[in-house]
Amino acid sequence: MSGPRVVVVGNGMAGSRVVEELRRRDPARMLGVTIVGAERAPAYNRILLTEVLAGRHSGEELGLVPGGWHDDHGVDLVTGDPVDTLDRAARKVVTASGRVLPYDVLVLATGADAALPDIEGLRTEAGQLLPNAFALRTLDDLRELQRARRHATRAVVLGGGLLGLEVGRGLVASGLETVVVHVGPHLLDRQLDSTAGNVLVRAAAGVGLASRIGRAVTRIVRNADGAVGGVELDDGTCVLADLLVLATGARPQVGLARAAGLRVERGIVVDDTLRSVDDPRVFALGDCAEHDGVVAGLVAPAWEQAAVIAAQLTGADPAARYRGSRVAARLKADGLHVAAMGARDAELPGDDVVVVADTAQGTYRKLVVRDGRIAGATVVGELSTVGVLTQLFTRQARLPGDRVSLLAPGSGTTSTPAASPSLMPAGTTVCSCNGVTKGAIQQAVLGGSRSVAAVARATRATTGCGGCRDVVSGIVDWLAAADPQVEVNA
Prior knowledge:
By secondary structure, the chain is an alpha/beta fold. The protein has helices at residues 13-25, 49-53, 69-72, 139-149, 162-173, 194-206, 255-259, 299-314, 386-395, 404-407, 438-446, 452-459, 469-480, and strands at 5-9, 32-36, 75-78, 83-87, 92-95, 100-102, 105-108, 112-114, 133-135, 154-158, 177-182, 209-213, 217-222, 228-233, 238-240, 243-246, 250-252, 268-270, 282-284, 289-291, 328-333, 336-341, 352-358, 363-370, 373-380, 429-431, 436-437.
């Protein structure tokens, strides 16, 4: 192959998507492409690990590309052999096994590791996590947690963010008495204001997930076998547990880049082309990249970045630039319904704020409007309005005069797409991670994709955060009523 050699370091969700985007834009295979992964497992959807823990997905459903895809598309795949050294002068990377991979262009998609707290008693004398203490970042982590769960009765989850709540709900569903300990002022304090956070606390209690808010863990209590026996809090109380899950954030993997002399702050600093500010031959994206002072930490921005990099490298759009993402997050936990768009503190002087709440019924909806467009939105409880809000937010479309109708189902003329697929405009974005519309899903189904899984393969809907699966399933159900060949919920 005579074209430039592209080496992608990291076979996670960002790296795998870069390779897919490259081949989609380069069917003649003018670029030589190699992807290197530290894990032995094929690329998988890390975000859905909690869905497997909760029993809503199987591990086999997590794969990002079908078996044999790399061979079929002329991509060299290296797994289980992490890159140890980056030599920018010689333009090569060297793996742990000594494999040397020359490159013309390097793409760093090294992701992030679990950020583990420094708590007394958390580690053994050898520096390992105490038995029955886990992070949940990889497929191996999930398997170990699943094994330990079978022998546990009580669990503590440290961290009340998205991951912590999804893990906690999954453990409750497994029959474990579970408590979330969160040092912040309320659950999901990065996404929600205090009123919404308090509504969520009550909702969590309603599904059996207890919480200790505003408390820090000062010490891990060990049982007679030297494994986790509980946690001691900063108020002196102790929460007994035989399983501990650490959901205390993530730390970008930047050691390789830093050792190679690239500028690193929180992440590898890149410009609008997603090139390192120090080396135009090196790109970075996803959890390891910092653009305009932001490390996104979500899948949708990483996949937008992948498309920008591929457009430049293949020549499909040399002028492609990344200008940042409009971030929408959704909690995936049975009985806990939360969607948030924009920053929690998006409200500025002069903004219009619309709030529709019934905290006794567990619902809270807030809209922050700036210059006639959504700057931020929060929905806790019933989520039928989220499809419309997400579409308006991501497109930055001007809002109708009756803004209350966007938050209160049935209060105005705005259709609520989750309530009836037939009322949903074809242009409504159903899967915000991949930009898949209701029309694209309908076209896929009518074109022969006769199940939710087939729709996912055809459109990529549901393959990001998974929060749109219920809506996609609803569209498939709706079409099944008119066409009995469509398989429901498969």
